[in-house]
Write a structure and sequence with these properties.
α7 links the parallel β6 and β7. With about 210 residues, this protein is of the alpha/beta class. The protein is built from ten helices and nine strands.
Length: about 210
């Protein structure tokens, strides 16, 4: 066990669970995405302060908030208040956002990394990953999208994509996380391919904390 990802869910009054892809758009339209995200960062760091030092936690950051310099103060204050080492916090951003606003996003992620915070590129492979973009990426790790991981044992093309991403990332000294690991066979194959971290239902279902 190396860490966990902090995920937000909307629990309705009738005990239904609404996933983020359904409510995040609503949150953005009603201008509550910022307080929600800042709360998520602070809550995650607070929880992390009670975990063993070797564990880390990842938090997803909404694309628009990466352009807000307030993120630097929020992250810095949370780490200082709870006495958590910056290297234990991993901020995740989607690859598609990086491609759309590459120059601005690269600059902001570079500032966060200078604080010591780790940066992860989420849903890797679903955007447009040019080699030049890959070469200059200011990140510590990439997460291979589960859309490639789940079918990799039955699809030669998906297997080839996963292998190519792992090899390329390692050549650029990037750590690789595979999302959507749901069975032992997939886990063993990813281990054979030298994937660094495995994440998915094989290890645990989402937990309420």
């Amino acid at each position: 066990l190396v860490g966990a990802e902090a995920l937000m869910r909307w629990h309705t009054r009738d005990r239904q669970v609404v996933p983020p892809d359904e409510f995040m758009g609503v949150a953005e339209r009603h201008d509550v995405i910022k307080p929600m995200t800042w709360w998520a960062v602070k809550a995650a760091v607070s929880r992390l302060s009670r975990w063993p030092e070797e564990l880390s936690i990842a938090v997803n950051i909404a694309p628009t908030l990466l352009l807000d310099d307030e993120i630097l103060a929020v992250v810095g204050d949370a780490l200082e208040i709870h006495g958590v080492s910056p290297q234990r916090l991993n901020l995740e951003v989607t690859e598609s956002v990086m491609v759309d606003n590459q120059k601005i996003m690269f600059a902001q992620l570079t500032r966060l990394r200078k604080m010591g915070v780790r940066v992860s590129i989420d849903d890797f492979g679903t955007g447009f990953s040019s080699l030049a973009y890959f070469r200059d990426l200011p990140a510590d790790e990439i997460k291979i999208d589960k859309g490639f991981v789940i079918p990799m044992l039955s699809s030669g093309k998906d297997h080839a994509i996963v292998k190519a991403v792992i090899d390329l990332a390692h050549n650029f000294s990037l750590k690789v996380v595979a999302e959507g690991v749901e069975d032992e066979k997939t886990a063993h194959r990813l281990t054979d391919l030298r994937c660094d971290v495995l994440q998915g239902y094989l290890f645990d279902r989402p937990l309420m904390i």
